[in-house]
Automatic annotation (TrEMBL):
Family the entry assigns: Belongs to the iron/ascorbate-dependent oxidoreductase family.
Residues spanning the membrane: none
Name of the molecule in the record: 2-oxoglutarate-dependent ethylene/succinate-forming enzyme
Top EC class, one word: oxidoreductase
Functional pathway: Alkene biosynthesis; ethylene biosynthesis via 2-oxoglutarate
Keyword hit for Iron: yes
Amino acid sequence: MNAMQVPIIDITALEGRATLRALDCACREWGLFQVTHHGIDASVLREVLTATRQFFALPEATKRAIERSEENPWGYYDRELTKNTRDWKQVFDYGPADGGMLQPQWPTGLPSFEPAVRAYYAACERLAVRLIDALNTNLAMPPRYLRSFFGTAQTSFARLNYYPACPEPAAPEGASTPSQGFLGVNHHTDAGALTLLLQDGVPGLEVFREGRWHLVEPRADTLVVNIGDVLQVWSNDRYQAPLHRALAPSGRERYSAPFFYNPSYATDYAPLSSVVDSRNPARYRPINWGEFRALRAAGDYADHGAEVQIEHYAL
């Protein structure tokens, strides 16, 4: 592990030339950065962390009453796999209803929980739109082109993470799963376009760069942002989705709240026309997000063999 600090970007003037350059550099070199002056009110962040702690302190039976399933992914779960390996965590996932099987589930006895989670989701969505517009500019596409893949049909969701104190935490040096002990979340890249992450004050997030793990130190005034596989494909590998993991905490609990900004299931994504030419041919064939997401989600519940990656669609 190395405590080398990832980029920290003030996005007060996100559309300004200097900020766009800093954003482009961070996406090229790290694929992950922290943002300050992001526009989300401190009360929204404070209340969602309070709601997170309250929810995971509920009796196990109360949480399991709203357990998520392969048919409805919104709710509580404590047996998730990453890289076909059990993570040391509990989660609560929230996404909008779709008029069918996908319906939010809410715990009983916590009246402030639903409004806190919904407010956090809405605030993160607004910020994600601003960030995707900025990346759209850096990738030289027509204004608002990338945001057109999201809108009302987007498949974004918010997650609350709880990492209980672990009696046997592990931290393999390389990009591997532990031979013994546990990671909070095993090494992976995010499947979607962008991830926004609120951390509490307990360190745990690490990003893999230049053959080493680097700790992403929590800062009270920032959110962590990382690009996902969709944006890596759109950029034709100009931006790399970073390999990252969460350590299992020893002797104390840890909480976090990621927001995954995902396009509509109907989206077919491939390298953008602005980043492809005779010297830089497309590196991926088109990928359907609905298909890709379903394959990745199936691996959350059971070992289905090798986890699907964008490399499986490489040309």
